[in-house]
């Protein structure tokens, strides 16, 4: 299957959602209280509304599993927030009503099915608020395997120095990056074995989303001598896919050892790296199973590499 309509719909939706997120972020006052999460709330919901509407229009019978839902938003005390979201959505979809917006968001309340879409309207919410990295992630999954992945990273510098990159991958057809503002797509390729300068690893900015000391020990054991790059969101997958780092480690945090990863936090990024020639598994070397539900209950941790060093990383993990 070529998945060309699916890919075009996901690309257009990701670009619009990213525009909405950037518009919300530009309006964040510099002196905003650190604890005020309202901008990310507006952008999260607005982004999910745009994406679900687009998918539902083109693929009315497909299930959509999104991170957010509109239950909170429908409460009377949230009317102002819903209005605000509707005005941001309305800048892209004229005449959108609050009721429609809530309905589009709830279209993302589906469950995992033989064929379904998953989306993270803003991945890296903490990065979004920090004016740092975040991503809009959309993926199509069939029989537990990701077939299409589209990842917009609106704050990430692209290869030409411009800000904002769109990563696109289709199973068996390779992966490309293109400036979010438009331009020519270029193929993505992971770090090659000779490219020692890029033998670096990436991990989360949030220390509670991983096990930093173990991640550092594993990286050192496979010959990575430089300090980690810390980047929010699935932008980390883009960094590995584009050959800027050889490894992304996400090991269970000692504070939440039973944590299971969400499908929407990995689906789009994983196929981008795989189609760029890399490998993605859990910490035991098992493929990520996107068919078990919203949480990947049969996987622990995530290891993303250029492929060449993968078995060595899994071997070190087995012994440590
Ligand atoms: N304990 C724990 N362990 C692992 N992962 C967790 C944990 N808690 C949360 N999350 C999920 O992490 C998502 C953010 O991704 P990152 O850690 O890559 O980015 S960041 O450093 O937090 O910005 C974040 O996604 P968003 O909610 O979309 O931001 C969460 O789904
Ligand atoms: Mg997320
Ligand atoms: Mg999110
Ligand atoms: Mg979240």
TrEMBL record:
Enzyme class: hydrolase
CDD domains from the UniProt entry: PAP_phosphatase
Enzyme Commission numbers on file: 3.1.3.7
Co-factor requirement: Mg(2+)
Keywords per UniProt: Hydrolase, Magnesium, Metal-binding
Keyword Hydrolase: yes
Listed GO MF terms: 3'(2'),5'-bisphosphate nucleotidase activity
NCBIfam families: bisphos_HAL2
PANTHER family, per database record: 3'(2'),5'-BISPHOSPHATE NUCLEOTIDASE, PHOSPHATASE
Family named by the database record: Belongs to the inositol monophosphatase superfamily.
Protein name: 3'(2'),5'-bisphosphate nucleotidase
Lineage: Bacteria, Bacillati, Cyanobacteriota, Cyanophyceae, Spirulinales
């Amino acid at each position: 299957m070529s998945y060309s309509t699916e890919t075009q719909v996901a690309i257009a939706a990701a670009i619009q959602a990213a525009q909405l997120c950037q518009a919300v972020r530009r309006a964040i006052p510099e002196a905003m209280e650190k604890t005020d999460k309202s901008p990310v709330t507006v952008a999260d919901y607005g982004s999910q509304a745009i994406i679900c509407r687009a998918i539902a229009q083109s693929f009315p019978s497909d299930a959509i599993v999104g991170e957010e839902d509109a239950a909170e938003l429908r409460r009377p005390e949230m009317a102002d927030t819903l209005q605000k979201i509707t005005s941001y959505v309305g800048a892209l979809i004229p005449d959108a009503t609050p009721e429609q917006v809530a309905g589009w968001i709830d279209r993302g309340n589906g469950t995992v099915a033989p064929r379904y879409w998953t989306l993270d309207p803003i991945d890296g919410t903490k990065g979004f608020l920090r004016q740092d990295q975040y991503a809009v992630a959309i993926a199509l999954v069939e029989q537990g395997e990701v077939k299409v992945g589209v990842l917009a990273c609106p704050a990430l510098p692209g290869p030409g120095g411009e800000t904002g990159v769109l990563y696109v991958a289709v199973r068996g057809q390779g992966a490309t990056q293109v400036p979010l503002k438009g331009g020519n797509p270029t193929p993505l390729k992971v770090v090659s074995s000779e490219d020692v300068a890029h033998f670096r690893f990436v991990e989360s900015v949030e220390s509670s989303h991983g096990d930093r000391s173990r991640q550092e020990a594993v990286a050192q054991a496979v010959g990575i001598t430089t300090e980690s790059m810390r980047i929010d969101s699935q932008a980390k997958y883009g960094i590995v896919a584009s050959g800027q780092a050889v490894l992304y480690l996400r090991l269970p945090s000692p504070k939440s050892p039973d944590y299971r990863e969400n499908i929407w936090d990995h689906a789009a990024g994983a196929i981008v790296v795989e189609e760029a020639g890399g490998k993605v598994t859990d910490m035991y070397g098992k493929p990520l199973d996107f068919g078990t539900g919203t949480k990947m209950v049969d996987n622990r941790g995530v290891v993303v590499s250029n492929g060449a060093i993968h078995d060595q990383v899994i071997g070190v993990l087995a012994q440590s």
